[in-house]
Amino acid sequence: MRPWPRGGVALGGDYNPEQWPREVWREDVRLMREAGVTFATVGVFSWSWLEPEPGRYEMGWLDDVLDLLHEGGIAVDLATGTASPPPWFSHKYPDSRPVRSDGTRLWHGSRQAYCPSSTVFTEHAVALASEMARRYHDHPALAMWHVSNEYACHNLPCWCEVCAAAFRTWLLDRYGDLDHLNDAWGTAFWSQRYTDWEQVIPPRVTPTFGNPTHQLDFWRFGSDTLLAQYVAERDVLHALSPGVPVTTNFMTNDHFRLLDYARWAPEVDVVSTDHYVVHQPAGPVTDPHHDPRAELSFSADLTRGLAGGRPWVLMEHSTSAVNWQPVNQAKAPGQMLRDSLAHVARGADTLGFFQWRASRAGAEKFHSGLVPHAGTDTKVFREVSRLGAVCARLQEVLGSHVEAPVALLWDYPSTRAATLQAVPSTAVDPGQVAHDLHAALRAAGVTCDVVPPGADLSSYRVVLVPTLYLCTDATAAAVAAAAEAGAQVLVTYFSGISDEHDHVRLGGYPGAFRDLLGVRVEEFFPLPVGAAVALDDGGTGTLWSELLEAVDAEVLARYADGPLTGVPALTRREVGAGAAWYCATRLDPEATARLVDAVCAAAGVSAPAGRPAHVEVVRRGDGERTWTFLLNHGEDAEVVLGGHDLVADRPGAGSWTLAAGAVAVVRGS
Ligand code: GAL
Asked: Measured between alpha carbons, how far is 431 from 254 in angstroms, rounded to an integer?
């Protein structure tokens, strides 16, 4: 594989020279060098410039851009240009435009206006990718291929007839025949039995709740369809441009759940993602505990989990404000550097931004860039240049791995299934539960890998299973095996309820984990939004409770008021060399912290000593050396105690001070 820039942590971002006159390009390269930028992602939205008319390619301008970047020593992450088809394409092939659930066909004039199942789109995209690969495979600036951009961001689901037909083909492949489909979808309910494939349609608007398995399968189909589109482009790139890694940028932000990235990750040569700080996500319930910094850490830990622990690429984040939230908050001085290094701490070896120069025109003209509208005599450009210098100094951490004794299971299909209609409580969001546990670990200074259920769990001392509603037999067995082998396993409420078809597991909840946990739940008692129930250990539960019997488990806490007074809420069972804990309600943050501490303590997992609150600590290592990242998110200077490996590289240090907002990277061995 071709080398990715190795002069330090790679720094760069989306570069859209077609938005600027040629005179600016040379200046761009000069400023990139000045700022310490080492890579540029070029061509993401360039299709209408690369192929202004069907089959007529115009790439001379891109030759010049790539040559200029190469002369400046800037590596290129070259996009295939297929993120957004040009107007001529949508005009010529009107059926290729995506359709909303209400039947509205979307127009061009924005971006990504193509149907995920459109074969004519895929043919044209593959043709452009092939042309690009033939022309640039041996260009010395080319370091990586970037296929499309944020698949599914705007065009999934699509409700057109082409998707309906493709959905039937996908179902035929999955189930083989209608009998198996009828069984899987539970069509005995509400007279839904299908007797001809033509009757099978996408889960369109229905008089009342639609069939959940039908909806879940349509979601799976959407993810697989776009994945196939990616693979089609990737395969021509591998064939025509061998040795150059191929990626596409994921969106591991919490609010994006349209694709099953566990199925995508094995198909990319390098896992890359985009992350934007979201101040209040639009969820079923506004979460008073939402913390954008903790969400960033979760996203980074999830990206690393998808990458199998290997270093990953942060393809995009922002130097300051975005333009797509209701109020777009600018980053405070120092925040961009801290956010960037939080990603590096958690395994990123590349820091990309959207975008190099803030646009003058278009829908994103109020989005920050590395070069703001005000020019280079700005806070943003000075901070970018500072980051450039820091990235160069971090060369030695490249390739090292993040040390994480804890795994947290994150499953996109389960999350999707748990948040469909007609569930016991629409206020329950597995994402929120996962974030609760992750935030408690982060606050405690314990790092965790957020991994898909198929991941190898054998090296973890703690395994967290937050509200894994839909659970396959294989996952249930893997979790039980981890406990047997010595892990402390913590499962939370509304887990193990259904199988891969979203059929309820009978005999008492939480079906898939009942034996492991030694508990049996007869009935759910979800709590009204805003209501709380006291526990006899001083904690409080919200959102959820259940009529639970501790069949073969020690009771750690019971409800102290409400209809379930005296019923167990928290249990623990010794299992083989480990244990299985169960938490049947959403604990308040303090009680969550106590529980997470207890589980970690039982596993012998502890935070680095001497770490003050507000200082995030993450360690990377390469087997010989370690690098401890300390990020002070507080408003005060923090005294970090010496005398342990946190400050091993500081001879004689007793204690030292980390200024408010500052980041330190401490080498140890
Ligand atoms: C990303 C996208 C970029 C840009 C950015 C703005 O989702 O990939 O092209 O739109 O958001 O925040």
From this structure: 7
Identify the pLDDT of residue 4.
Answer: 84
Q: Are 433 and 388 in contact (CB under 8 A)?
A: no
Which helix H or strand E contains 135, and what residues bound it?
helix 119-136
pLDDT of 647 reads: 40
Alpha carbon distance 219, 148 (integer Å): 20
First to last CA, the chain: 30
pTM over 0.90, yes/no: yes
User: Would strands 10-15 and 348-353 be described as parallel, antiparallel, or unpaired?
Assistant: parallel
Q: List pocket residues of ligand 1, CB cut-off 6 Å.
A: 149-150, 274, 276, 316, 322, 354, 364, 367
Two structure tokens written together for 123? 């043919």
Q: How far is the CA of 370 from the centre of ligand 1 (A)?
A: 14
Which of 239, 6, 7 lies closest to 133, judged by CA?
A: 239
Longest dimension (CA), the chain: 79
Can 546 be counted among the known catalytic residues? no
Ranges of H-type helices in 45-103: 47-50, 60-71, 87-92
The single residue listed with the structure tokens 């043919």 is 123
Atom of ligand 1 nearest to the CA of 251: 7
Atom of ligand 1 nearest to the CA of 315: 8
Give the pLDDT of residue 286. 67
Ligand 1: distance of its center to the CA of 153 in Å?
Answer: 9
Q: Mutual orientation of helices 379-393 and 22-35 as an angle, nearest 10°?
A: 50
**Using an 8 Å Cβ cutoff, are 387 and 11 in contact?**
yes
| pLDDT of res. 283 | 62
Q: What are 463-504's pLDDT values in tens digits?
A: 999 999 999 999 999 999 999 999 999 999 999 999 999 999
pLDDT for residue 285: 61
Per DSSP, helices labelled H in 154-242 are 161-175, 178-185, 212-240
Q: Which residues of the chain have pLDDT under 70?
A: 281-286, 641-654
Question: What strands, in cross-sheet order, belong to the sheet with 348-353?
Answer: 246-247, 142-146, 75-79, 39-42, 10-15, 348-353, 312-316, 272-274, 249-251
Q: Which atom of ligand 1 is nearest to the CA of 322?
A: 12
Distance from C-alpha of 601 to C-alpha of 63, rounded to nearest angstrom = 58
**320, exposed or middle or buried, with CB in 10 Å at 0-12, 13-18, 19+?**
buried
3-state secondary structure 536-581: CCCCEEECCCEEEEECCCEEEEEECCCCCCCCEEEEEEEECCEEEE
Q: What is the pLDDT of residue 651?
A: 42
Q: Specify the pLDDT at position 635.
A: 86
| pLDDT for res 416 | 97
